[in-house]
Amino acid sequence: MIERVSLPDVASYTASAGVGVYGLVTAQWVGVVIGILCALITAGVSIWVKLRDDRRKAELHAAQMRALERR
Fold first, then answer.
1. Cα torsion at 3, 6, 11, 12 (round to 10°)?
2. For residue 4, what is the DSSP state?
3. Calpha distance 12→18 (Å, rounded)
4. In this predicted model, what pLDDT tens digit does every residue of 8-22 receive, in sequence order?
């Protein structure tokens, strides 16, 4: 048969787990995570801007080539 767990036991285990997780999270760890997220966001934005710039340059080149062909 399944043994019932009392509410104080559940609260105690939950609090213990919470304290353990809180002990792992330090200011340095939070700084590292934020730094990694900022680096990933920066890389993503840089790639997006570069792709847009390449597309614009390709469109400009195509327009210039069409203009030269019409002459």
1. -70
2. P
3. 10
4. 888 888 888 888 888
- Owner of token pair 């104080």: 8
**What is the sign, positive or negative, of the torsion defined by CA atoms of 25, 30, 32, 34?**
positive
The rounded mean pLDDT for the chain is 89
Single-letter residue type at 41: I
pTM for the whole thing?
0.56
Cα gap 23→70, rounded to integer Å: 72
Q: What is the DSSP string of 7-57?
A: HHHHHHHHHHHHHHHHHH--HHHHHHHHHHHHHHHHHHHHHHHHHHHHHHH
Residue 40 token pair? 């990933």
**Any idea which residue has 């080539």 for tokens?**
65
